[in-house]
Amino acid sequence: MKRLIILALGAVLCANAALAQYYKAGNDRFSVKVQPFVGDYLDKHNNMKIINPTLPSGFNLGFELPSSQQRPWQQYLNNSTAGVGITYMDMGDKVMGHTVSIYPYIMLNCLRREHVELGIKLAAGLGYCTESYWTNTLDTDTDDPTANYTFGSNLNAYLTGGLNFNFPISRNIALNAELGFAHMSNGRIKEPNKGANILYGGIGAIATVNPEKEKEPIRFPNLPYRWSLNITGAVGSQNADMADEKNFFISTFHAGAIYNVTNWYGVGLGADVFFNDAIGAESNRGLFRTDITYKQRDKIRAGVSLNNELQFGRVTAMVDWGIYLYNPARHCYNSDHPIYGYGKRPLFYKGEGAGSDEAWNYIRFGVKCRVWDNLYVQALAKTHYHIAEMIEFGVGYQIPFISKNKRRNDKDIIFHNREGWWNNY
Predict the structure, then answer these.
(1) What gap in Å lies between CA 392 and CA 314, rounded to an integer?
(2) Measured between alpha carbons, how far is residue 67 from residues 64, 107, 209, 281, 416 in Å?
(3) Closest CA to 193 of 249, 141, 237
(4) 139-164, pLDDT tens digit by residue?
């Protein structure tokens, strides 16, 4: 209970900081949303079927900041709403525990009518669970099928999104409904890590403070660049198997060129180099053969990827899909493939399904936040199929190249993301 109270206080402080920053921008409108919900587990794993929890339920609390129409990203995204959310959830069984999650989110406006408003909610943050495999009372027997295999750690990543409906009753009050999806896991930082996928629906209310105070909208120019180059380095750790006595070091280098199709969406190609020290015979996971000697180069993978970026001001959401062009680990899987057996596999091969081995392609998704000028920090998850391989944390630099028709002189090539940049274009 003490940890829950501390986490809740931290959420209040985060919300207060966000509101204070918003007031500094010249807007004192904000909304408070309370929304009870109930859900159901999707894709239950065998351990969860044995525990047989009841339907997960709880409430969402949101502090929302309606568009002040004073920032470029608000104009680019049709005056979307930003917010800070807190979610409490009873996971349906004492072994599963209770969770409290804290996350920033954005509400993309899709429809606004007199009696109904429709938005798409996108959010990512952290969730704390009171129980995990290593903390609940059944953890003395590692083969106990009723132990909590869903969460291998108390602290997890929390991802959620869905459709949000507002039904205004007055200028200050509206009924609220939401149909969404939530995912919670630790990205293989600590095993076991089955994770939870939940489809939920909720009905609540939202109150807006000072709804009549709206400033005169500012019209901003388009971003002065189309092409940009991203260079990123990231590190992390992987707990390959719950029987392992250590975590394995992982790292990533990424370089990619992005073309801004619009002011809020960019697409491009990137090159990736990965190092995963869990590739080898040291882990108890059993994924790789133990009768061969591994060299450092066997733990390196390299590939090319299709990069997608959704830009929300300082924050950018990223989704990449890539294929390996260098992947010596594919020859070392400890499985008798129906076509290739234990021998060498081609660069692109038919896998045996998620969980049986890793794949010839990969997915990376996460967020980055610009902290100064074009310098950013980021957190991403990397998966094969829908099985997480790692979570990485990195730092990078974006180099936006100003379009020729926007340059003020021959030396004005690189765009610097500083306050008031729009006054120069």
Answers:
(1) 20
(2) 10, 10, 13, 54, 24
(3) 237
(4) 445 567 778 888 888 999 999 999 99
